[in-house]
Amino acid sequence: MARKPLIAANWKMYKTPAQAQEFVTAFLPLVANHDRDEIILFPSTTSLSVVVAAASGSNVAVGGQNMYFTDEGAFTGETSPVMLKAVGVTHVLVGHSERRHYFCESDEIVDKKLHAAFRHGLKPIVCIGETLEQHEKGQTHDVCLRQIRDGLKDVTAEMAKTLVVAYEPLWAIGTGQSATPEAASEVHAIIRDDIARMIDEETAINTRILYGGSVKPDNIDALMVKPDIDGVLVGGASLDPQSFARIVKYC
């Protein structure tokens, strides 16, 4: 397969800088020389500089969990793409389900953030996914297709060379529930088909699509065997170095 698998850790609002430093110190030896998969850590903003320094020279990249779409301005509490680049991160999460659900981020805002990432050379992981209510009403496919179409407006094939999409159903995040590998793979295939229609077939074939939602050491192997699942975006199970190393080293 041409698509290199990507295993990403989203630490959300956990870990102080000291705790983040301890994690990286313990984690790097566990994945030393592991080059089958791309590995990315997404710490909170206050720990970014610490994690970037600790992971320097290793096979582990670092990204920001969120950013605003302008370079600077009177936007209290926000972090700009310029700031992320300045501390040395290479990736950024865009439109995480918790951002959409709790902070009311629209597809339009997601699209603006995505284009800001492209402008500044940050590699975006665009997150999409449905709520429990939408899932129970059988609206999964409609919701994901709308978020793809509205959140990736005017994205060209050249831009999309660094694009990663993550399907992360909100009902499976932090709940212990997980979409079955079969169900997740089906949604991934639909997303890939829509990318082909929006951009082109080659882009769809090359775009990595991750699954996120209660990914754990005991379900990673079953997920990664599916051909349309190109990696995972891990939450709670990525907070422990041993647990996350096991996920990175899936069979």
Structure characterization notes:
The chain is α/β, with parallel strands linked by helices. The protein has eleven helices and eight strands. An eight-stranded parallel beta barrel has the order 1-2-3-4-5-6-7-8, surrounded by five helices. The protein is globular and about 45 Å long. About 45% of the residues are buried.
Strand order of the largest sheet: 1-2-3-4-5-6-7-8
According to CATH, the fold-level topology is TIM Barrel
By CATH, the superfamily comes out as Aldolase class I
Amino- and carboxy-terminal Cα gap: 16 Å
SSE arrangement:
Layout (H helix, E strand, L loop, with lengths): L5 E5 L6 H11 L10 E5 L5 H8 L4 E5 L16 H7 L3 E4 L2 H6 L4 H13 L3 E6 L3 H5 L3 H12 L12 E4 L13 H18 L2 H6 L1 E5 L7 H5 L6 E4 L6 H8 L3
Summarize the structure in short.
This protein has 251 residues and is of the alpha/beta class.
Key words describing this protein structure:
251 residues; alpha/beta; 8-stranded parallel beta barrel; 11 helices
